[in-house]
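ugh ok so i messed up the first submission bc i forgot one of the chains. this is the corrected input, ALL of the components this time, i swear. 624 residues overall. if the numbers dont match what u have on ur side tell me asap before i send this to the collaborators (the ones from the other lab, u know who)
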Amino acid sequence: MKIHYRIIYLLISVFFIYTLLFCGFIYYSISSYSFQDFYKRLEIRAATTAKIESEKPKDVSVIKEMRQEFLEKLPEQEEYVYKINPENNGLTVPKGEDGLPDELVADIIEFGNGNFQEKSKFYSGIKFKTLNGDSFIAVVSAQNYFYTHHIAYLQNLLITSLLYGLLLIVFVSLLISRTLVRPVQNIIKEVKKISFENLHLRLKLPKSKDSLRKLALTFNDMLNRLETTVETQKNFISNASHELNTPLTSIIGEADLALSKDREKEEYQKALANILSEAEKLEKKTKALLLLAQTGFDGKSQKFDILRTDQLILDVKETVQRINFNCKIYLDFSLLPENPMKLKVNGNFYLLHLALSNIVLNACKYSNDSPVHVALGASDKEIIIVVRDSGIGIPEGEMQYIYDPYFRASNTGDFKGYGIGLPLARNIIRIHKGKLEVNSIEGQGTSVQINLPIAIIKL
Amino acid sequence: METKKILIPTDFSVKSLNLVKQAIETSREEKVDIVLLQGAYLPSSITEMLFFSKRKLVKSFQSEEFNEACKMLKNKYDSRINSFCVDVITSKNNAYFQEYLLANGIDEIVVPNEDSLNFKGKNSFSPLPLFTKCKVKLNHLECSSVYEKATTVREQISDLFFSRT
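and heres the new structure output, hopefully the right one now
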């Protein structure tokens, strides 16, 4: 069901149930009040009738006067006064009269007073004793005008107002759902317009500062990221072929030149050495590419073992110093946990070694061989490795692209590189369910923090 | 085995935890109890006072990095740290602070140099002036970091390392 209709149905049902309950309550309480009120009026009349019957004749005139003056006659008011037979608790009803309903009489005799309703005719009566000791009952009956006319009017009024209310509710809920759903629909419409070809389009931001604006902002943010990824994907092939082409061209050129005429032995050796070095470069590049492609998968082909991170870091240090003699790497094990179990991770030694050495090598390279600090520590669930240099840093605006393959920051012109190391490292860390975070200030240095989950070893 | 309870002021930055490191290294006792302390003003509005809870207040100060760094320290000195807790005092009153020290059985207070901690955060104040008037043993520590500038930009766990390199 569309959310549009769902909102409407929900609003209508809630409002309708509310008004229905409201009307029902009013109807019920008004009618019950009118009943009670009418019975009270009847009872007063019954009481005065009883008084007139039972008091001394000289007082009776006063009471009659009072009744004449203050108690108006109700519609179809009738008064009955009957004597109670002491023998059988029955009434002595004069002939030619209908008498009273049995229920009412029984009530009055038992409790001293009683009420009764027969259609729109209401009865109310009391029991009393005259001066000479006889028991009587006095009953007054009348038509309840309010019940017959006003209640019906109230009923009609409530029903019509309910119908009008329903109309109003439908209208209001339509309006509300419109205003609520319209902006969402607008966003849907705009997002639908965006496809692979026009990724540069962005959503219009609503003026109000609500969650819809946030939604649009989030969409735009996502589009930004998508666009850059698509752009780098597009550039990847051209970049890759360019990277591979450069050493190939020099190999071909060198071979061509060597073969163009007969040469001395030394010259051939020199040419072959050149070709070899270029071919090695090519191999490195293809290997890096291959690794990047491999690690881009879910890591299903890799074998994972339990390994110690301090061992790993020492190994990395050795490797890096073999590759680059000028590297000054300082290890900081000051926060090494006492419990060696907290140093173990579940991972592939070769891959982690590759990722770490990449990062450390980069740190050395981009800081012109000034000291690089590598630190290791462990919290309860994660092992934290920090690599910190005081090199050229990464410009702030380019931080979001550093994980794109072949991206190189604008200040790396003086350094050789392919732009594969960091994305590769991140892929590897991701395979190990870890986190790689880069913080950098341009011109001051970069710190890379790697969090790896501690292996859970069952003994 | 004797345990010593050390009170260490903190501004809830990772860098300030270097004091903990130094305090443990310099103490001769085998076991230590660490109490990190910051001054925090109580909220002034009545509705905030109604729902005030000290635990929530302390929690609001602690960043994820801070917690992570605390855990790292705990792992590092696993056998020496007996207990580790973070607390706030809510008054600059001297008598209140004396009472606090007495109630918590503090044996030693670490006093860093004046400008090493930054108490400019919201609703917080420095407990350092209170330390000068108390009878508990004071332990003055130098707190410095070569990466002074880099740390001001963003809180990083790496602040905990390299403090004396």
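quick check: Residues 57 and 385 of chain A are 115 Å apart (CA to CA). that seems consistent at least. The first strand of chain A starts at residue 78 and ends at 84.
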